[in-house]
Amino acid sequence: MSLQNVHVFHVHQKVTFMVNRYEVFVDDNGRPGRLVGFAEQKRLKIKERVTIYTDPSKNEVLFEFNARKVIDLGGGYDVTDAGGQRIGLFRKDFA
Questions:
Q1: Could you name the domain of life of the organism this protein comes from (predicted)?
Q2: What CA–CA distances, in Å, run from 49 to 3, 6, 55, 72, 95?
C-alpha cells in the first residue's frame, strides 16, 4: 500500500516526562490500522525538529519536520523526505 494514496491517518500521542511519543496508523474503516510511522520528540527543545520513522526500530526515516523559527507558537514547519528534499509544509493553529 502506497502512503501517497492514504487520505486519513490516526496519530496517537503518549506524553512522558522527557519525550512525546507518536504512533501513526493508516485508517481502517474509522479505526487505526497498520502502523506506518513512529516518532519520539524531546520536550523543551528550543527549535523543534521531529523525525518520523517507519517503525519503533528507528532504522528507516520516513520524513522529518523542522520549525522555521525558534519558539514560534503559530510558526511554520518544513517537511522533508528521508533524503532531505522539501516535500511540504504546515502551520500550527495556536488559537
A1: Bacteria
A2: 22, 24, 18, 13, 22
Q: What is the pLDDT of residues 18-37, one digit of tens each?
A: 888 999 999 999 999 999 99
Cα 15 to Cα 19, 42, 68, 73: the distances in Å are 7, 10, 24, 19
Distance between CA 29 and CA 19 in Å, rounded?
30
**Phi, psi values for residue 4, rounded to 5°:** -65, -20
Q: What is the pTM of this model?
A: 0.74
Domain residue ranges in the chain: 3-91
